Amino acid sequence: MTNDIKHLVGKNELIEHFKSVRKYSLSLISALSAEDCQLQAMADVSPSKWHLAHTSWFFETFLLGIHSRNYKVFNPEFKILFNSYYNGIGEQFKRGNRGSLSRPSLDDVIAYRRYIDEAVISVLNTAITPEIEQIITLGLNHEQQHQELMLMDIKYNFSINPIFPAYQSLKPTQVPNQQSSAAIKFINFDQAIINIGSNAENQFAYDNEQPKHSVLVHPFSFANRLVTNAEYLGFINSSGYSNPQHWLSDGWAHIQANNLTQPLYWHYINGEWFEFTHYGLLPLNLAAPACHVSYYEASAYASFVNARLPTEFEWEYAAQQHAPSNTAHTSLLLPNMADSSAAIGQLTDSCWQWTNSAYLPYPGFKPIAGVAGEYNGKFMSNQMVLRGGCVLTPANHLRTTYRNFYYPHQAWMCSGIRLAKDKT
Amino acid sequence: MTNDIKHLVGKNELIEHFKSVRKYSLSLISALSAEDCQLQAMADVSPSKWHLAHTSWFFETFLLGIHSRNYKVFNPEFKILFNSYYNGIGEQFKRGNRGSLSRPSLDDVIAYRRYIDEAVISVLNTAITPEIEQIITLGLNHEQQHQELMLMDIKYNFSINPIFPAYQSLKPTQVPNQQSSAAIKFINFDQAIINIGSNAENQFAYDNEQPKHSVLVHPFSFANRLVTNAEYLGFINSSGYSNPQHWLSDGWAHIQANNLTQPLYWHYINGEWFEFTHYGLLPLNLAAPACHVSYYEASAYASFVNARLPTEFEWEYAAQQHAPSNTAHTSLLLPNMADSSAAIGQLTDSCWQWTNSAYLPYPGFKPIAGVAGEYNGKFMSNQMVLRGGCVLTPANHLRTTYRNFYYPHQAWMCSGIRLAKDKT
Amino acid sequence: MTNDIKHLVGKNELIEHFKSVRKYSLSLISALSAEDCQLQAMADVSPSKWHLAHTSWFFETFLLGIHSRNYKVFNPEFKILFNSYYNGIGEQFKRGNRGSLSRPSLDDVIAYRRYIDEAVISVLNTAITPEIEQIITLGLNHEQQHQELMLMDIKYNFSINPIFPAYQSLKPTQVPNQQSSAAIKFINFDQAIINIGSNAENQFAYDNEQPKHSVLVHPFSFANRLVTNAEYLGFINSSGYSNPQHWLSDGWAHIQANNLTQPLYWHYINGEWFEFTHYGLLPLNLAAPACHVSYYEASAYASFVNARLPTEFEWEYAAQQHAPSNTAHTSLLLPNMADSSAAIGQLTDSCWQWTNSAYLPYPGFKPIAGVAGEYNGKFMSNQMVLRGGCVLTPANHLRTTYRNFYYPHQAWMCSGIRLAKDKT
Amino acid sequence: MTNDIKHLVGKNELIEHFKSVRKYSLSLISALSAEDCQLQAMADVSPSKWHLAHTSWFFETFLLGIHSRNYKVFNPEFKILFNSYYNGIGEQFKRGNRGSLSRPSLDDVIAYRRYIDEAVISVLNTAITPEIEQIITLGLNHEQQHQELMLMDIKYNFSINPIFPAYQSLKPTQVPNQQSSAAIKFINFDQAIINIGSNAENQFAYDNEQPKHSVLVHPFSFANRLVTNAEYLGFINSSGYSNPQHWLSDGWAHIQANNLTQPLYWHYINGEWFEFTHYGLLPLNLAAPACHVSYYEASAYASFVNARLPTEFEWEYAAQQHAPSNTAHTSLLLPNMADSSAAIGQLTDSCWQWTNSAYLPYPGFKPIAGVAGEYNGKFMSNQMVLRGGCVLTPANHLRTTYRNFYYPHQAWMCSGIRLAKDKT
Asked: Closest partner residue to D35 among C40, C77, C106, by Cβ?
């Protein structure tokens, strides 16, 4: 974003893209009630209603408030209510209380979206400067991130309800019936100096993926698929959660303090394992990738099988050579299972993959200029990088340079385990 | 409740009373959206939807499940979801998460109410045993308590929204315009042995008001009205919140730990005082009683003016001799102001009044028999008694023997300050 | 203390009494190291060193600083360091950090004591005004309270050390060998109007015991002895700690949150019960009174046996009629066992006894005048009264009007269970 | 440690080195009382007594218990009491309670040390296998780490005492009188592939420094000295602590939650700045390096001056080319000031230097074999690397490959700020 992006798209294309992304956000709540859209079952998640409002606030604040002369603010209270974390913009409503706001109502928020949409399209219909194009592009990528968040958050919000509500219904015939997987293969990579990151020349990239730079990668091998539920169950059944041996010290403290004995959405009921999904409670599919694990769990599992997690550079290198195909993308909100035909599979279409890299700036990193500079840079501490993408990520929001990041204890995103090893 | 109640009412009267109380609960949400009814802005309060469901669960659990032969449970999940605190019934859904349930929806809960209403009326239409009459009476009194709680909780839930939503609208002409009050007078009472409590002979009474027993009361004097906002403001302006002198040790620790500098709903904005009400933010009415004060605040204020809080026995004695009139009861959801014509006023129609009595059993106290025995008895520690009633209390739910109770730090109920003194 | 105390004692007697009390405090640490005297294993307890300094600070602050013309402060830093909770005197060092002060050393504190002793005796040798006599008397009673606290606190401080250090050694022949007790008898008391409290005419009494006033007590019966370990074990063995039935709501929450399954100092090791004592770990003596129980535990046990705890007025009435004898006072730091010859025994020489009375002011209560007024009054919320005395209490510090008070969850004092019942 | 270390030293040399290191630990408490040695003013620090015992426990557990046939354990309780965090060895006494152990006494611990010393020397006098040499070397390096910790912890333990005790005394003539510093110069480094880490061929190195491997470093410039107190004061005086602009998001949350407005040991008293030191409270020396800053503070300061922190690879590269001289090492326990003659100074003899590298394994990292494998590896999450060394570090414990690590919020170690920049 700090570099000029040369006319990536034409005006009409941009307007159509804008409309399409904005419409998709709304489609995500088509099966939800206003009550559903207000849920906030822990401080890390936000109500769907809030996501819908905040993504509009983003365009209002960074585009309309700056680049639209006659723009009249929809509601001055929203400046605080829907500011997520931009101190440069001003005060923010307390994050953990977002679920305690019934006003504005969902209907009010939808009206707000409509108002913003019209105002943005009106700006786009006059003159698109490179600056405006940049902020539109950032805003749409931002909205796509929130689309994935909406799906993650709804799942969490429903998960604590003992009724286990389903976000969508699943016909029995749709339930994936693959039940086993071929053994993991480790693909070798030689030492190399590789290009990491992007200069956002031909494709949008966030500031945290920039600049493109060279990294020396040591010989390693990389698993051809993600760890499955069956494999992870092996760890559980080997006293994985009651023996500190394989855990990082902070990880062991975390599972002790929270009495964790299994991944976030797993339930052991009357001698059988289930997993909470967007389709309600389903029997645990042993061939599906282990998902919703924390970094601590991923790291402990890797140690258990004498492997380790890859660095984010190893991951990007592997993805450069085994370009992820999105063709296998299912229409279900369940992580895709391994495709045995792929040399290296499940790179972007199944679960995000914890790396052993801390989320830190690349050499030469510069935040986006202006108030949107808080977008990524200020979170560069205490978090770990996840690479890839997941079944909830909008398809055109994926790229091999993408850096996702979460705290090591978090697990409500679709986070899985890719193994790696030092090449011997 | 432990005593037999002789046919207080006839069958039709009972059915009409049942319908009327149940209908009133629903009327309280007539101006609210489903989103409003789901709010739970702190663990102490519950969503309106939850109150509507729990009061139905009460009849289902203690009446239909026991006394109705063919009763079919509406939804077995509700047994846990809407159990407040009855360990004898079983597990309970986590109190602090009640606002995180979008399902059942408000519509589902209203259907549940209808189903319960029909089932109860059907029971009442067959044969009313004394036992059934007792449990109906208890259930209706229980529901009336929750009606007051609904109004308290809605107020709190709206109060943290910076938009300050109004539960109801108030015409400018309705705003109370009394701005000053005559000085407090202290009415003397001689030493006496008085009857305290009720045997529930002619009127329903909770187990905690029983049995009627004699108490020796020492000479005291009792304020003819409640402390006003103007008077309480004098305490604030005398560094009341920055000087430990008048505070109980626990109270001082509480206001320090929570940075309290004023009562719960007061706001100081641009040099003026406001109070959040069911009508949104209103200028602080100096003649109105100070309301939403904690026991710690009430006790500190009393010390500040060289007075003390009355015991619950002194309060009951005063109320016996100055029977509270409910005629002055306003239709507004604002505490009534002092009526200078009353010898002792504002006993039940304005704010509950903190007493200096801990909530403990009366001599000879016995909990209601059966599982409903958890109703009152198990809360007899750490709480203080409030007496009287408030503008939110259903009118026919008041009596001079009524014992309300809250923790000393709580303030989201309509709690005001009645002063007393040792008679010298 | 608010009343004039007429020459209770002569000058020499007072000086001797002063010397004797002060000396006894020092004797309590004769078997302890400087390291032992610095321990503070939880915020509720204080290091022995701190007690020795604070009781000297009390005389310095309330006597020497006010009544001694040429008194030179020993060390100005001590004003803050050894102020317990007197906001009227000024700031206080953070209570929970008292164990984190190695300077002043124990030797410094002993020198401080000597300095204060000399200064006080010098004041007493000149002229004793009634005011001075009052503050000396208060200071010595205050010191006696701290003597009991020192013994309580040392026990707690040693209890968390897995080595289980012994404060004193016990010869095998000294171990009490009584192993069983006669069944509890309930002694009846008729309704009466009784005198409660003291006017401090012939004997010192704290402000919280004053004034003497009449109370109407209803018919009750009162256990002739305390509940034994054997009896309490019956409660444990009947799933007492895993069933909410008999617990107050706050009590159940407390034992759940803290995973409590037995009284504070009990240990179950290899199938046998032990109790940590001033003599290290001893096998649980089944005939000894259950000690170190919280109010919640006492209340749950009483409910378990269909009894209740007495009110503090019932306790005082029983003690008036069955004057406690201190003759049976053992020299061991273990609660005395029941003496079957006593009509009502173990009133003051064994364990303090939880009552069902909240710690609140008596009618007409006035705090001591001046800064020492914070002594008792400001703690009159959230605590329950214990009556009697215990084996750790200095013998001449006992009286039937004495009101001890602790929070319901606390158990590091010698707190036992006296049962009572409504007389039927 | 995972590699064989060829006879680094002869037997006598090893014994002498052992004696010398062990003696130095004891010398650190020569001016402390037993009370001082028991202090633990926060959970992160340990009592000096505990350090003295734990470093002996280390030899007992990893050497004597394994390699000495007839070794008789000194006290079986110590296995738990002085185990820091080795789950492979067994249970550990609760870390935060170490200051609550008066037994064993300091004298007991010194006797324990003597016992261990004799047993170790006896082993060394028989036959030194490579394994034994390795564990001795590890144990001595471990002890040297604890020597620095002892000095850090004593400083913290004294710092919360309002008396501000001095660990050592300082003559007025010893007070450093340098008051100003030349402006920072940035030294340029070109892109290079460099060797990072050690194979422990000629010098001991921890497992976390291994293996030696190549890293590609991008062009950068590196400050010739550390940031001074004067410079850091400029940040404070520019509203550094009240403006979120330069802070990482977690850092801003941390200083808000803890009300931080200055570095850990700074005090602003009557308009003047002081710093707590091993010599008590001293006026803040403006020319001295800013010390005891957290990673958050270091990062915010760097942003404030448009710079950044170096990576640990940049730091090691700079140190390779500007070999740190220890000649300027003062005998004072105060960070050395900049030596203007050095091209790049203060590398190891002043303060540790926060890097912008997370503490993670090197490619090919393997923990030490056996139970000591918990030494370093399990802490590789959530911490940041500090490089260099500080004035408290034993002189022969320094090397350019050394990786120190702390959580970003911690500041009780001697942590300073080295600036770097991308080379433009």
From this structure: C106
